[in-house]
Recover the amino acids of this structure.
């Protein structure tokens, strides 16, 4: 009997290690109904809107948005090419388009969706070795101007590097690792982790093998909190 | 008793299986850092670094789809166009269109813009 209890504890530990604590949410085809109705393919990245006190946060996000979206099976309009066109068309300030019709972006870029990213907060704590980020993602249809997907997350990212080896050697290894792990790389990782974590529940796009097969999976929470770290 | 044990083992295995990281559709080499540095600095060093990353993504593609990810041929081609390597650049833009026909709309536009 004892054996069973021990096994159960181990099993529970394993399961919780990678489990996201799920409160009851809708399935994706309900939560993101428009995504399944419109079947968007091409996504235009609008330059992130930075409302935080950190001026660099905009670039950290802008350079890390395309990877998780492409990996989810979408066509992401190339970052630098689209920046160039947006600048030439005097449309580089995404704030101006947040509440206005997006049909023109559909015509110019062939984009089905426009991704707005609003960085509400980016606070570094050197003592805690962490960054507190609040970021909102809004995918809007360029055809209907409807919001098809939106999530907002309060994310604490632990930036301290640990080798996991204790003792003096461990401490030295940690110091070296932290030195190599330059500030910029570390903060790119923060933005990347926020994007990847949030878009985990994005319905799969056309280029993904899961395309059309994930409608009954659960969507994530619309407003969420998470603690992430570099591993 | 045995049944319970079996059940626990099965649950454990399932838990572990769901942990394993799935392979991505594409591999990106050092893309996040290179693109950030280029976005931030656009100097010779960051441009060179970005070109090397593009080449690595194209030549050593390890994703499950086995094709170059969206936008890589196009952004690389565009970079070459701005460096006056017109033929090489246009060839890459054509590759993007061949692989991702949805890109034709804005690639035609950028070519037109560059002629102006």
């Amino acid at each position: 009997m004892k054996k069973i209890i021990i096994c159960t504890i181990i099993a529970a530990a394993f399961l919780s290690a990678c489990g996201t604590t799920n409160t009851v949410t809708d399935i994706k085809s309900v939560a993101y109904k428009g995504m399944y109705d419109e079947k968007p393919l091409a996504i235009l990245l609008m330059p992130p809107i930075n409302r935080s006190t950190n001026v660099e946060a905009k670039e950290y996000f802008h350079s890390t948005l395309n990877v998780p979206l492409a990996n989810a099976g979408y066509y992401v309009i190339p970052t630098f090419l689209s920046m160039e066109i947006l600048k030439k068309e005097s449309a580089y300030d995404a704030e101006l388009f947040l509440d206005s019709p997006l049909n023109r972006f559909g015509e110019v870029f062939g984009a089905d969706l426009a991704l707005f990213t609003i960085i509400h907060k980016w606070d570094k704590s050197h003592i805690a070795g962490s960054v507190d980020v609040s970021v909102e993602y809004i995918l809007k249809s360029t055809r209907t101007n409807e919001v098809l997907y939106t999530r907002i997350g309060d994310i604490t990212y632990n930036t301290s590097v640990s080798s996991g080896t204790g003792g003096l050697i461990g401490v030295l290894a940690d110091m070296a690792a932290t030195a190599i792990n330059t500030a910029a790389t570390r903060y790119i990782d923060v933005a990347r982790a926020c994007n990847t974590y949030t878009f985990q529940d994005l319905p799969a796009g056309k280029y993904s093998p899961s395309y059309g097969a994930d409608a009954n999976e659960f969507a994530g929470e619309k407003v969420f909190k998470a603690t992430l770290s570099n591993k | 008793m045995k049944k319970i044990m079996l059940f626990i083992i099965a649950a454990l295995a399932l838990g572990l299986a769901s942990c394993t990281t799935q392979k991505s559709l594409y591999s990106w080499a050092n893309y996040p850092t290179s693109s950030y540095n280029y976005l931030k600095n656009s100097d010779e060093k960051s441009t060179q670094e970005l070109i090397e990353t593009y080449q690595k993504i194209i030549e050593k593609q390890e994703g499950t789809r086995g094709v170059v990810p969206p936008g890589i041929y196009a952004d690389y081609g565009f970079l070459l166009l701005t460096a006056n390597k017109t033929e090489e650049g246009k060839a890459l833009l054509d590759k993007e269109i061949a692989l991702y026909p949805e890109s034709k709309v804005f690639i035609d536009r950028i070519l037109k813009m560059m002629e102006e």
User: Anything to note?
Assistant: The radius of gyration of chain A is 20 Å.
